[in-house]
């Protein structure tokens, strides 16, 4: 097989004919979904961790101006949604971005995007399961505490080591130990570090292995997988019910919270500037992940070419309005810098002594997380089913249950793939991996629309992205951006290009010190009367951090190596590699737009999603690259020779 076989493409007419004639040899999926159901699935997927958790961290970084980040992310997802909607109208089958890439780019790219979608849905499911576990155990702890206080009972709460993943406990123990070594007392540690330390030290051990596992996450995955296996109608009904519950709770939060808004808390509106707002881009984007899962249900829609585009758009619009209002209410009820907590909605009402609202929010958060997991858990098996139909995965993955009309085998495998890692993986790691896999899929779908825009041999569906010629808009915008960067933002731009060293935060410095170095640093501060009254190094250094010049002077005088004080050289440059990739790609896109009269909306979707990828750390790019290499080894070892297109060629 030559290199040309890597880019062999599927024909839209053939795809539709294969599905209609049931050439894959399994039962068809049941068609039950309408626009209302699709929009509900989108809301179920989008309103979850974002509104109940990550909105707090993003608000703490960006202040009330975080609403602009929600709007920017919604616009970026909206651009991508146009591309998804056009493809879904053109190719209304279950493969989502995988099938779209097969049509636009060919088999190797389709495999890559299918493999990336496995990361999006499987890793996304793991993320949501872990978040659900956090809220569920928090709710249980609250119930137990209330019963013990009110009735003088002596009920016990779940042990820390059965409600936390292995990596969080291990890393938390190390960080807590380093901070206590730096003079911080255990009582003054962050609550999360305290829990991680306790989980690690109290867990059963086998040799040097500490048995720490998130059992509630396993519990919810088993329940949701069973529901998804049982049927689309059951999943739809459960999703719709959970959406109604959480929308009612969110509207209640807004209705009650608006009376406690103090507009003085909105000043300053953007306390940390644009950098602070953009700092939360990963967390806020994760809040929108899931709308594309709607496209995996194409074969179960009554009228996919009409309903899929409408369902996606309505879901994004409704959720964006709710996100913006909630962000304004939260930052109006308390100061933005108090919102860096895991449960911001419950936190603000506890702070205002409205504990009854906190209890309602805790219950609704558990429901919201379960609905997100339901939608994600539906998407993954349908991607595998489509890849199996094409011969890229074993045939059993396309098996449809004769009674329930669901991809039965793929659903069970998805349950195992999600359940086992959820016991042990770290939430931050899986969140970022899910984000980069999703953004990569969005980039290729937008690029696919651009590739197909001028091909007359491709049949068009009922929905088509409005065309605006980007021939001159894109190059002019790029030139304007360069001029702005070197005039109004010259200092930051030159620091980026010159790779100027950056000072480390107090926490980074303290946690990187050995015990001997910690003692030496403290003695040097004591000698200069800086450490009077406290033995907490992080706290001492933190009091100087707001004054940039004073903090730099203090750190420069510390008796430790330069690399512990600053990040510089390649250690700093490697974090800028994703942004350099984005900038180079931007130039190439401007040239492509000028030469091929590209459509502006999918081009903007591609640029926005690639920019958000560039905001993720270089380690996420490395992990993602490793994931793709594993996928390519499977493709060349199994999928390429078993592809249905290869079999047609052989015949």
UniProtKB/TrEMBL annotation:
Record-level GO cellular component terms: membrane
InterPro entries (alphabetical): AA/rel_permease1, CAT_C
GO molecular function: amino acid transmembrane transporter activity
Keyword annotations of the record: Membrane, Transmembrane, Transmembrane helix, Transport
Location(s), subcellular: Membrane
Primary localization: membrane
Transmembrane segments: 38-59, 65-85, 209-229, 241-261, 273-291, 312-336, 356-376, 406-424, 430-452, 472-488, 577-593, 598-614, 620-638
Domain Cationic amino acid transporter C-terminal: 600-643
Membrane topology: Multi-pass membrane protein
Full protein name: Amino acid permease
Lineage start: Bacteria, Pseudomonadati, Bacteroidota, Flavobacteriia, Flavobacteriales
């Amino acid at each position: 097989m030559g290199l040309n076989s890597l880019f062999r493409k599927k024909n839209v007419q053939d795809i539709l004919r294969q599905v209609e004639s049931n050439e894959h040899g399994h039962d068809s999926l049941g068609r039950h979904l309408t626009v209302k159901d699709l929009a509900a699935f989108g809301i179920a997927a989008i309103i979850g961790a974002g509104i109940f958790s990550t909105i707090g961290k993003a608000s703490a970084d960006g202040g009330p101006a975080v609403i602009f980040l929600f709007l920017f992310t919604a616009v970026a997802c909206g651009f991508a949604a146009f591309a998804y909607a056009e493809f879904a109208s053109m190719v209304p089958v279950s493969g989502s971005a995988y099938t779209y890439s097969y049509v636009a780019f060919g088999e190797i790219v389709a495999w890559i995007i299918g493999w990336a979608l496995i990361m999006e849905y499987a890793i996304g499911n793991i993320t949501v399961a872990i978040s659900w576990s956090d809220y569920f155990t928090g709710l249980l702890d609250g119930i137990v505490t209330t019963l013990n206080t009110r009735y003088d009972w002596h009920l016990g709460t779940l042990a820390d080591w059965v409600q936390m993943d292995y990596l969080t406990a291990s890393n938390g123990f190390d960080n807590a130990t380093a901070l206590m070594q730096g003079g911080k007392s255990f009582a003054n540690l962050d609550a999360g570090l305290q829990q991680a330390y306790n989980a690690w030290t109290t867990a059963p051990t086998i040799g040097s292995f500490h048995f720490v596992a998130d059992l509630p996450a396993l519990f919810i995955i088993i329940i949701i997988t069973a529901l998804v296996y049982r049927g689309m109608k059951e999943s739809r009904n459960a999703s719709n019910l959970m959406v109604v519950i959480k929308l009612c709770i969110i509207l209640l939060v807004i209705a009650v919270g608006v009376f406690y808004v103090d507009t003085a808390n909105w000043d300053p509106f953007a306390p940390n500037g644009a950098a602070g707002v953009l700092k939360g881009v990963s967390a806020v984007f994760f809040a929108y992940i899931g709308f594309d899962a709607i496209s995996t249900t194409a074969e179960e829609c009554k009228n996919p070419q009409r309903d899929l585009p409408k369902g996606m758009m309505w879901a994004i619009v409704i959720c964006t309005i709710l996100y913006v209002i909630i962000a304004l209410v939260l930052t109006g009820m308390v100061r933005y810098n108090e919102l860096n907590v895991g449960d911001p909605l419950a936190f603000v009402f506890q702070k205002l002594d409205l504990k009854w609202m906190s209890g309602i929010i805790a219950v609704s958060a558990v429901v919201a997380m379960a609905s997100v997991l339901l939608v994600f858990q539906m998407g993954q098996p349908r991607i595998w089913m489509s890849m199996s139909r094409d011969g890229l995965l074993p045939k059993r993955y396309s098996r449809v249950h004769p009674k329930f009309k669901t991809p039965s085998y793929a659903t069970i495998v998805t349950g195992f793939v999600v359940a086992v890692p959820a016991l042990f993986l770290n939430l931050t790691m899986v969140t970022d991996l899910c984000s980069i896999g999703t953004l990569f899929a969005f980039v290729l779908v937008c690029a696919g629309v651009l590739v197909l825009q001028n091909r007359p041999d491709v049949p068009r569906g009922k929905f088509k992205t409005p065309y605006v010629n980007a021939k001159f808009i894109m190059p002019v915008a790029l030139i304007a951006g360069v001029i702005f960067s070197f005039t109004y933002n010259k200092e930051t731009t030159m620091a980026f290009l010159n790779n100027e060293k950056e000072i480390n935060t107090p926490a980074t410095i303290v946690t990187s010190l050995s015990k001997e170095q910690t003692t030496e640093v403290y003695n040097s501060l004591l000698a200069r009367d800086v450490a009077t009254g406290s033995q907490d190094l992080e706290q001492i250094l933190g009091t100087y951090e707001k004054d940039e010049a004073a903090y730099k002077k203090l750190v420069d005088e510390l008796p430790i190596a330069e690399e512990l004080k600053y990040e510089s050289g390649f250690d700093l440059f490697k974090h800028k590699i994703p942004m350099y990739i984005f900038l180079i790609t931007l130039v190439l896109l401007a040239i492509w737009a000028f030469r091929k009269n590209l459509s502006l909306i999918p081009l903007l979707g591609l640029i926005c999603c690639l920019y958000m990828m560039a905001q993720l750390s270089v380690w996420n790019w490395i992990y993602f690259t490793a994931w793709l290499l594993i996928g390519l080894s499977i493709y060349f070892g199994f999928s390429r020779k078993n592809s249905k297109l290869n079999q047609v060629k052989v015949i």
